[in-house]
Design a protein that fits this description.
By secondary structure, the protein is an alpha+beta fold. It contains 2 helices and 6 strands.
Length: 125
């Protein structure tokens, strides 16, 4: 059951991907996840997975993405994550399809070095 003032909750386990990000209506971005990412699925099948969850309001967007969106040769992953946070912040209030298209346009290099997948979710209250 959602808490008062929320539209619902997101519950996830990270298996080797960068941390999910939460975009609030006012443009604030929060990196979700206090625990280190676990190993990729299948690498260590007996590894216990950690889970996390967060309450969401109906105007927030949760972004899940693969490392191809933020990792570049010759650039730290931290730099890529900071660029994603800035781009995401500037897109507050956009329709989800427009937000995804704009992130890809702003962040991807001319020549892709890795595959990229992203999912953006906004709950409806």
């Amino acid at each position: 059951m959602p808490e008062a003032g929320t539209a619902g909750r997101v519950h996830w386990s990270n298996a080797g991907h960068p941390p999910p990000m939460l975009l609030r209506a006012d443009g604030r971005v929060e990196v979700l996840g206090s625990r280190p990412s676990g190993p990729l699925l299948g690498v260590a099948p007996d590894t216990a997975r950690t889970e996390e969850d967060r309450s969401l309001d109906c105007t927030s967007v949760v972004l899940l993405y693969t490392d191809g969106l933020v990792e570049r040769r010759g650039q730290s992953i931290e730099t890529g994550l900071e660029e994603l946070e800035r781009a995401l912040s500037s897109l507050a209030g956009c329709a989800l399809e427009d937000l995804c298209d704009a992130l890809l346009e702003r962040l991807l290099p001319e020549r892709l070095e890795d595959d990229v997948a992203l999912v953006a979710v906004r709950l409806r209250g």
